Amino acid sequence: MDKNNLNFYSSLVKFLGQALGENYEIVLHNLEEDHFHIAAIENNHISGRDIDSPVTGFALDLIRSKKHLTQDYLVNYKSQTINGKNLKGATFFIRNDQNELLGLLCINQDISKYQQLSQEILGLAGLAKESHSHVALDTALFSDSVEILEETIEGIIYSIVSPDLLDQQITLNKDLKVEIIRQLNEKGVFQIKGAVSQVAKILNISDPSVYRYLKIAEQTK
């Protein structure tokens, strides 16, 4: 994303954050090559993320699936913070004249207060035991997609690879390390700023080893 686009969408993030209010987190993801990161964010108290936080695993899936080639935006998907707060998400694809994806403008609405209020109203009406009905109604508002708003690259890595494989007490052989790196590469993790060093730390190997295993993984697809 060039400087003009970055300045424009960063200003738009500020405007939307103030116009919509504190229950809406507005996020701009800049998809520079090998440096996917949050470039601007408003009302970040909702997810706890900040400037330069990584994109989510869900966003990586959107990028890899190239949904921007057939859709201008995606709305009404369920998001969730790492502490379990429910949100309703929407993403607008930022593209250039060649239809290449430059960034993502995301809106995450905190709906947890409304869910709590609906429970209280049902309780006052003596219908609290039937609360499953309102849960079904909430679910109907969303698409099948769910985004977990991870704050760290480590969280994204652990959401993709089985925690059993990343247990620090387990000694991984070369083939397993290559397989883990292949899984992460397929999800686009290495496009995130700082991902190589974080993967190296988790696997207890050097940065050059990550690049070496990555090359092997790409050659053995």
TrEMBL record:
Q: Which Pfam families match?
A: HTH_22, PAS_6
InterPro entries the UniProt entry points to? DauR-like, DauR-like_HTH, YheO
Q: What is the lineage of its organism?
A: Bacteria, Bacillati, Bacillota, Bacilli, Lactobacillales
Q: Which residues are in the Transcriptional regulator DauR-like HTH domain?
A: 167-215
Q: What is this protein called?
A: YheO domain protein
Residue span(s) of domain YheO-like: 6-118
